[in-house]
Predict the 3D structure of the following.
Amino acid sequence: MGSNTFESKKGILVLRETKFGPPIDELMLRENINFMGMLWKKRLVDRIPLQYLTNTVHWRDLRLTVSTSVLIPRPETELLIDYAREVLQELKSPVHHDSYLPEGAWIDLGTGSGALAISIAKELRNVATCPRVYATDISVEAAEIAKYNISENGVGNIVTITTGSWFEPLDTNLVFSGILSNPPYIPTHKLASLQPEVVLHEPHIALDGGTNQGETLLINICKDSISRLLPGGFLALETHDLEQANIVAEYLRNAACFWNIRVRRDYCGIGRFVTARKNM
């Protein structure tokens, strides 16, 4: 076989066979090769995540805009939506046909890019006549990015984004059928040991879970969820590791307000997620 040659101009990459076979169709690129080469050098030398260099991340079926103001959504966080979908499918069954929960609002606490809020909004379209999702973030910059992604992904009529800490910016009478959160959970003393891509470029406000085992913010969410969840409502949290997940699960058990409390594994088999249902 002959060797392949590349030609590039004005964002068009052409691959041609020099001896055998017909020319391969032109491939349109978003940027020219020289600019892409410069980005790749920044990726290798400065350890800037590719998602920040392109301002784009693909997550589940979504294409999201990201910047260094928001955490890059991880593949394992998709499991929070899978767990929520399981509950929604259960509530659609004939056994629960009279349940009020599918029509209740859901919330994504610490929304960042808006990934969870957008995905749960799309799931609710299948079960609720008037789906409602709220999303909060303490970062004004993150809230603006989430607002943009919510609009771009066609759920602007479902998701309401507000700026503030957890439930703080919301009416105290507002209660939810489901609460999802991937909050900051890395123990402060472990931040320096993270990969350069993370510790040098991702927002520490979205990473730093505080002292001890980094569980403080998770416990605060659990505490507030007692009064914010409807009876039978669903709580799903992402944590740092099995040790932290067990701390959170133990708090929920001791609160005596939840049932079906489970520590669930991520794609690597690590116990990372805690899910529970509010007592009826």
About this structure: DSSP finds eight helices and 14 strands in the chain. The CA atoms of residues 17 and 246 lie 58 Å apart.
